[in-house]
Amino acid sequence: MNMGKIAPKRLADSIVEELENMILEGTLQPGERLPAERTLAERFGVSRPSLREAVQRLATKGLLVSRQGGGHFVAESLGSSFTDPLIALLEGRPDAQRDLLEYRRTLEADCAYYAALRATAVDKTHLKAAYETLHACYASGNSSDLGEEGSADARFHLAIAEASHNVVLLHTIRGLFSLLKTNVVANIGDMYARDRKTRSELMEQHRLLFEAIIEGRADDARHFAGHHIQYALQALSEQNESDRRLERSLRRNSQGTTAIPGKPAREH
């Protein structure tokens, strides 16, 4: 029986593997700058030439990009599910807003479930900070700054995805982040216009979701996450229907002002 020799693993291979793991698990995020070469080499306990080789190989793979005089960065396009032109198309279409919420309901219910099962003490601290920031936005009573509130909401849901320790869910949610912020702002605006009780209802929904994850109640976390998104779906549906009724009323009113009494209005 012929057996070949086992080739020793090159140091650069180990560095590539470690950096790839850091990108995959979210320790290194899209757009983030790598530490300086000397710092990173000391941290890994490797030579700078080996580190340089590993970085070059990751750049060839498209995982890292170099900027002259600015160091090496994780590629910002990693995990991006939507291009900027597509985001612009989606933003102004109610049906697309609904579709995105349905997609979020599917993803975020699972994220919440796994976060409740797997969140570490570090994850819980990070999630608590995101929740408190969001709660402060609600408590301020300033519904005019929807941008800040939308960002805080999106960061809270992203923190849940990070706590799920599922890298596919994490990168899918992270890839949606900019679109998610836009979507959250649009949904919040619609819900505020619909009902003054919305603020307290959203606060309660996020509280229940946050506590279920912190306390490790996975089934409850999945339920509360799904219910939260379903609430937004229902609010969006009611707002769209209200808008359609108003448009019909305005068309009838406009038609009526041009009609001669007793005769049908002329078509133009």
UniProtKB/TrEMBL annotation:
Pfam families (alphabetical): FCD, GntR
Sections of the chain in a coiled coil: none
Alphabetized InterPro entries for the sequence: GntR_C, TF_FadR/GntR_C, Tscrpt_reg_HTH_GntR, WH-like_DNA-bd_sf, WH_DNA-bd_sf
Domain HTH gntR-type stretches: 9-77
Keywords: DNA-binding, Repressor, Transcription, Transcription regulation
Segments of skewed composition (Basic and acidic residues): 241-250
Protein name: Pyruvate dehydrogenase complex repressor
